[in-house]
Design a protein that fits this description.
Order of helices and strands: HEEEEEHEEEEEHHHHHHHHEEHHH
Distance between the termini: 56 Å
Shape: globular
Bound molecules: zinc ion
Number of helices: 13
CATH class of the largest domain: Mainly Alpha
Number of domains: 4
Strand order of the largest sheet: 5-6-8-7
Strand content: 5-15%
Protein name: Peptidase M4 domain-containing protein
CATH architecture of the largest domain: Orthogonal Bundle
Number of strands: 12
Length: about 475
């Protein structure tokens, strides 16, 4: 039985505005308005200048439904102090936990909403971690659902099965985080910072927006493309899974107006300038066994420059999508008097590019999908959306430069509707000798045994066992037996 956490004492800075008093006054005003609904409000006719002119009715629009709870989240993670925390408004009805029909927390004390139905908690507490993790999963799922314009079930959901995903913010001590289809769970672990003097600070993977969004991306993609998680298919299929997790993290950050504005200010609108979005989370990347951070989106890697290792390979696709975002942003940006704020343009472009990617992935083959499959679907969908040809030129150019597809026409010409883009053959990008993808640089999801789906994974361990020492065959042990018998 876990203790319920209620009404924590918060530093003043963490109390959301409006204040309780403001809210109470606002409720009174709303109640007063309710009294005159659905009656019509009466105003004096503007045609009649006399004070005693005839009253005319005007309809009053219905009051908006204000279901929602406020929460605090890290814009990136606790190490990125310059951008820190932000408040978010989660739309919907949330129970104690927080929880809803799609997401249940586990392994941490449930958090109750305060009297304003908010879940604002002080950082560095289990209650904060619970709310933070729930919030990021909720926001990432919402973004993905909006991108496809439909509710996205979890992989195990069917007509009768509406089981939510179980989310463990404090799953245990290890440097890991993963999505598990068998356990219907997202698990986030914690560990002491490696190499730090005692007492080493504890790093919680659930406090990273990137990591939570990345793992949630695996869960969403496993629902849309259940055949993509197996470890025996084309390494590019596994790479699409890893890349999608990173893209969910990047585009979730870019769906937040203040993050988009911060990026514009930092880069002066050139997304290829060094920035927090493309090269952060190195500390957490290390935690997941990567030596180059969770994000390495702004890279120039071509398929001939990476290995078959799935995370290495994934950078080519992630980098291509980031480049396309940068190109489309430049196409749409309008700094003139008829234009709009750049940050707003960036948010819109990012929203479209993510929609494009997710729909293209959805339309790609059910198994063994390649980067070229998704790129071709992106070209088809961008054309069907009626987007300017510049969008398709950007898609073609970036993935031709990265040696993913071959363009039948020079890149100086516009893409034509008749163009067919063949995949570039890279015979060295194959599975390992045992027929499995090399996932050694991936996050925990891709290295879970259940997602390998193959006895050969276990055979690897048995083979290693053959080369081990000790056991009954060991001559030293036989000697010991002999001695013991005497
Ligand atoms: Zn991953």
């Amino acid at each position: 039985m876990t203790d319920m956490i209620e009404d924590p004492v918060l530093p003043a800075a963490f109390v959301p505005t409006p204040t309780r008093e403001f809210n109470a006054a606002s409720a009174n005003r709303s109640a007063a308005r309710q009294l005159i609904r659905p009656a019509l409000k009466l105003v004096r006719s503007t045609d009649d200048k006399s004070a005693a002119g005839p009253a005319i009715p005007i309809p009053i629009p219905p009051l908006p439904i204000a279901f929602g709870s406020r929460a605090l989240i890290y814009k990136q993670d606790p190490s990125v102090t310059e951008i820190g925390l932000r408040r978010v408004l989660l739309r919907g009805l949330f129970g104690i936990g927080p929880s809803n029909n799609r997401i249940h927390l586990a392994g941490v004390p449930p958090v109750a909403p305060n009297s304003m139905n908010d879940f604002v908690q002080a950082p560095d507490t289990a209650a904060f971690d619970a709310v933070h993790t729930f919030s990021i999963v909720h926001l990432a799922l919402t973004m993905c659902q909006r991108a496809v314009g439909a509710v996205i079930k979890w992989q195990w959901n069917s007509g009768a099965n509406t089981d939510p995903i179980k989310v463990f913010p404090h799953a245990g001590v290890t440097m890991n985080a993963f999505y598990s289809r068998n356990e219907k769970a997202l698990k986030f672990f914690f560990f002491n910072k490696p190499g730090a003097p005692t007492p080493a600070p504890v790093i919680f993977t659930c406090r990273s927006l990137d990591i939570v969004a990345h793992e949630c991306g695996h869960a969403v993609l496993d629902s849309l493309k259940p055949g993509w998680l197996s470890g025996t298919g084309n390494p590019q299929t596994g790479a699409l899974h890893e890349s999608f997790g990173d893209l969910v993290a990047i585009f979730l950050a870019l769906s937040q107006l203040d993050q988009a504005e911060a990026l514009i200010v930092q880069t002066k609108g050139n997304l290829h300038n060094k920035n927090f979005l493309s090269d952060l989370a190195e500390q957490f990347g290390l935690a997941l066994g990567r030596d180059n951070g969770l994000r390495n989106a702004d890279n120039d890697k071509k398929l001939s420059q990476v290995t078959s290792e799935v995370h290495d390979l994934s950078q080519v696709f992630t980098g291509g999508i980031y480049d396309i975002l940068a190109d489309i942003f430049l196409l749409e940006r309008n700094l003139g008097v008829t234009g709009e704020d750049e940050a707003l343009t960036l948010v819109k472009c990012a929203q479209y590019v993510f929609r494009l990617v997710l729909r293209a992935i959805h339309a790609a083959p059910a198994t063994n999908a390649t980067f070229a499959n998704v790129v071709n679907q992106m070209l088809v969908i961008a054309a069907a959306d009626g987007k300017p040809v510049g969008y398709r030129n950007a898609i073609r150019n970036q993935f031709t430069a990265r040696e993913v597809v071959v363009s039948p026409t020079p890149l100086t010409q516009d893409v034509s509707d008749d163009d067919v883009f063949e995949a570039v053959d890279h015979p060295f990008l194959t599975v390992k000798e045992n027929g499995l993808q090399d996932r050694s640089g991936c996050c925990g999801t891709m290295r879970l045994r259940e997602h390998q789906f193959d006895e050969r994974y276990l055979q690897e361990e048995l083979d290693e066992l053959q080369g081990g020492i000790g056991g009954e065959d060991d001559p030293h042990q036989q000697f010991d037996h002999a001695e013991a018998a005497e």
